[in-house]
Write a structure and sequence with these properties.
898 residues, mainly beta, 22-stranded antiparallel β-barrel, 7-stranded mixed beta sheet, 4 helices, disordered N terminus
Length: 898
């Protein structure tokens, strides 16, 4: 945790000499000058001759909550004299103008063990410290090193990616998306069926739809084997929102602007499309009386970005830009009631209203395939946090979400899919859905000697009301442009029946975890989690977890490992599709070699096709094991960690046509149906990865966090709707996973520059992902043209790598105001003469208003990162990409804080 700087703010910058593009003329001279200035900043050492320093830090409890009002005393180790202050509403404290020497920070708070942190003030600027207080059953005192206890903790891995506001506000983030940075540190092998989990204030959310100014901290890979969560550490993102101030009123106004005049042209566009994107955020917080504080935040987003169509039709190439207007309004409010020092109550409300037009266009999809999407969300949360005794903490959470949404095609014409060439007609999507979710959770922490117990339970009932009339006009699939020109489709599909349905889905879980401090240098965590879902006939979902941390010589090196099972859940889309196409409420019409444009004679329709869930379906799960070594590098969050992780997935979801023609005879097992597509839990996966993580501060100016991963990921299913090429032979499906990248490197950095300038950068470099190679024909007559050439397995094509550098530069202008120099630190001990000896009076400087202007550049070097490689052999694009990631884009920002 990096404490907020008070008074004089230190600007931040990064090595932009690596980022400056090589241009000509005047731009070259400007860049050369900028490089010289930045190099001089990098090489400049700290000023000499000063004889005073500063100390700052944050006080938190074991769950990461700020401890407000903690008594923080600073003792000179030579003179034994003290000064003191109290932690503020964000748990922060600061002492300035300290004489060089050795000090002891002593922190006391009611209900917690007393903590002591030794600290040396010298010419070298130290990072802010974090004091983590443990719940105490009786009056206890423990000496801790800066930022962590001297004893290793099995659940406190040092390589957690922790992004506080210092990181979030000073790194380039397109459109101010708070998940843009943490998402690059996730492991796709640990994500699960529905992708990574987003946990907001302890409650699972479908998305992080809150303004950036309302976020306090984001974690990735925190306590990887915690029994409290259903996913491993690198398969979830934990977000903590901010509380309002207890004493003062604060506000923030933020404006973000993008315009196409400043952007580079996409590699597949013939002309740069018009773009105007405007984002406004506002936030206000403060006290409402002595025991209540509030926070209100809002965000409005307006954009007319375009998608690039790059396709081939019988009339020639089609390259055009299609505008995709979007409007998005978000509101977030929070009330915190400090009922007593040990009892708090929180109410929060989130509102979202989002509309998008012309979605789904781009690549092979022509403009006529556009859909319109809208979603409206209201979410209410209630949290209660109480110390029922000095050693017992209970956290109770309620949440209710109402989320109606709809997606409709702009054209109702039948769809034409020409594999690897173009897609025309209507998108054949007509979906209206209302989801209501209620969540109740209770988690408790109990301290008993060497045991730190964490246990709890939760329930998540959901209800769905759906009208799904998708593909009611039908879809023709053609193997090639030649087949389209001659009017010879491979397959025609169409849905019929009653599109209305409703169903419920209930999820329950409980967990127990005991973190045991076996010895001063050995900690072991034992946990067990149980999960159950109402619509899955699987009741044996026990997930044991174990983790350990061992410090061989009670020093800065820790050996850490763990093993655990993590269960997934069945997505509601499976139940929806099975109800919609069960043969009674609805059915699918599938015709091989149909006529065009009339696929079959309505007087003699073909047999129906069904979708169902296999009766022996089980809950998918992952088994993860890891072993690593960590080394702290001095004080603060400076560390080097090396970690090996193995992830094995079992009972993964796939779809299989169990009524496909039998090999040899070509006869369907049940001639009364064409296809019976069955959701099964028969897939497997395995992943091995070696990760090296480094976080440090260079020359007191450059905050750096880097991570390199060497990995191999294999599986035999591409997901829930993945159909094998041969429904009776799954062995050739085992190959590289869709997300397999052998090498992944991500680096984020913030550089402090003089004159209140700051800079940040994100560097991402990954090796390529695979793609599938198919013939384009339905050779085995199973009505799906995904057959592969003889001897070719799944995902044998190899795409190119990805590389991008993003850059942020901002200037903060502090607006002076008159305020008292004394902010409340009180001297606790004095020299006989009445003056402090070797210790100046500690004080915190107030927060003044400031204005910040900045610019973000994404894909600075304008590298073309190709995507969507075409593996259809009949395609005119075979072996090539038909799309690329965004070219260089610029974003301007202005922030005002008061």
């Amino acid at each position: 945790m990096i404490a907020a700087m008070h008074g004089q703010l230190r600007p931040v910058q990064m090595r932009s000499d690596r980022l400056a593009p090589r241009t000509k003329g005047i731009m070259a001279r400007i860049n050369s000058l900028a490089v010289a200035i930045l190099l001089s900043c990098l090489l400049a050492g700290p000023a000499r001759g000063q004889n005073t320093g500063a100390l700052s830090g944050t006080v938190e409890d074991a769950t990461g909550e700020y401890v407000v009002g903690a008594d923080v005393r600073l003792r000179n180790q030579i003179t034994a004299q003290e000064v003191s202050t109290n932690s503020d509403e964000e748990g922060q404290f600061r002492f300035d103008h300290l004489a060089f020497g050795d000090y002891l920070v002593i922190v006391n708070a009611q209900g917690f063990k007393s903590a002591e942190v030794p600290f040396k003030v010298g010419e070298r600027k130290e990072s802010p410290i974090r004091v983590s207080l443990q719940i105490a059953a009786a009056t206890e005192s423990v000496t801790v090193s800066a930022d962590s206890a001297s004893m290793p903790a099995a659940g406190q891995n040092i390589d957690v990616v922790e992004l506080d506001r210092h990181w979030l506000e000073n790194l380039p983030a397109k459109e101010g998306d708070p998940l843009a940075v943490p998402s690059i540190f996730l492991d796709p092998a640990a994500a699960g069926t529905l992708g990574p989990k987003i946990i907001v204030d302890g409650v699972e959310s479908s998305a992080l739809e809150v303004p950036l100014t309302s976020i306090r901290r984001v974690y990735v890979n925190k306590s990887p084997y915690s029994a409290e969560f259903g996913r491993p550490g690198r398969g979830r993102i934990e977000v903590i929102t901010r509380k309002g101030s207890r004493r003062d009123y604060h506000g923030n106004l933020t404006f973000l602007l993008r315009n196409s005049a400043l952007d580079a042209r996409n590699a597949f566009s013939r002309a740069r499309p018009a773009l105007q994107r405007e984002i406004a955020e506002t936030e206000l917080d403060g006290p409402l009386g002595a025991k209540v504080r509030f926070l209100l935040a809002g965000r409005y987003y307006s954009s007319n970005e375009s998608a690039t169509v790059h396709a081939r039709t019988p009339f020639g190439s089609v390259v055009e830009n299609v505008p995709m207007p979007e409007h998005n309004t978000r509101l977030f409010g929070r009330l915190d009631f400090d009922l007593t020092p040990k009892h708090t109550l929180t109410f929060s409300y989130k509102f979202k209203n989002k509309s998008q037009q012309n979605q789904g266009v781009g690549g092979f999809n022509l403009a006529e395939r556009a859909t319109d999407f809208s979603i409206h969300e209201n979410e209410v949360k209630v949290f209660e946090r109480a110390f029922l005794s000095p050693a017992f903490l209970n956290e109770l959470r309620f949440a209710f979400k109402d989320e109606p949404q709809q997606t409709t095609s702009r054209s109702d014409q039948p769809a034409n899919i020409v594999l690897g060439a173009f897609n025309s007609g209507g998108a054949q999507i007509s979906l209206r859905q209302t989801e209501k979710t209620f969540t109740i959770q209770d988690a408790a922490t109990l301290i008993r000697g060497k045991h730190n117990l964490r246990f709890g339970a939760g329930a998540r009932p959901q209800s769905f009301q759906i009208i799904d009339a998708s593909n009611f006009s039908g879809t023709f699939t053609f193997a090639s442009l030649a087949r389209y020109a001659s009017g010879q489709p491979e397959v025609f599909t169409m849905n019929q029946g009653n599109p209305r349905m409703s169903f419920t889905q209930r999820e329950y879980y409980s967990f127990f975890q005991d973190e045991i401090q076996v010895r001063q240098n050995l900690s072991v965590s034992l946990g067990l989690r149980y999960e159950w879902q109402s619509n899955v006939p699987d009741y044996n979902n026990f997930a044991p977890r174990i983790a350990f941390a061992y410090s061989p010589h009670r020093g800065q090196t820790v050996i850490r490992g763990g093993l655990g099972i993590f269960y997934d859940r069945q997505p509601e889309i499976m139940q929806q599709q099975a109800l919609l196409h069960d043969g009674t409420q609805g059915r699918q019409i599938v015709v091989e070699n149909p006529g065009y444009p009339v696929p079959y004679n309505p007087a003699s329709p073909p047999p129906p096709s069904l979708v169902r869930i296999a009766p022996d379906t089980r809950t998918p799960y992952l088994t993860q094991a890891s072993l690593g070594i960590e080394r702290k590098l001095g004080r603060g969050r400076n560390f080097l960690a090396v970690d090996y992780t193995m992830v094995r997935g079992l009972k993964l979801y796939r779809t299989r046509n169990i009524n496909a023609p039998l090999p040899g005879s070509g006869v369907r097992p049940d001639p009364t149906f064409i296809d019976i597509d069955q959701f099964e839990s028969s897939g497997r996966s395995r992943s091995h990865s070696l990760t090296v993580s480094l976080q440090t501060t260079l020359r007191n100016r450059f905050d750096l966090l880097g991570q390199y991963t060497f990995s191999e990921s294999m599986d035999d299913t591409s997901g829930l709707f993945s159909l094998p090429a041969n429904n009776y032979d799954l062995l050739p499906e085992s190959s590289r996973a869709d997300y397999d990248r052998r090498h992944r490197f991500n680096l984020i950095g913030i550089y402090h520059l003089p004159l209140d300038f700051r800079a940040g950068t994100i560097v991402s470099m990954n090796s390529g992902i695979p793609y599938n190679i198919t013939t384009g024909f339905d050779n085995n007559r199973d009505t799906v043209p995904n057959d592969r050439p003889l001897g070719i397995g799944r995902n044998t094509g190899a795409g190119p790598g990805y590389a991008s550098v993003d850059f942020h530069l901002s200037k903060r202008i502090t607006i002076p105001r008159n305020e008292s120099k004394d902010s409340g630190a009180r001297p606790a001990g004095r020299h006989a003469s009445g003056r402090l000896s070797n210790l100046s009076e500690g004080r915190r400087e107030g927060h003044g208003p400031w204005l910040e202007v900045g610019i973000d550049a994404f894909n600075v070097f304008n590298r073309v990162n190709f995507k969507n490689f075409v593996g259809v052999q009949t395609s005119p694009f075979f072996g090539r990409a038909n799309a690329a990631n965004s070219a260089r884009q610029l974003q301007f920002s202005m922030k005002f804080h008061f």
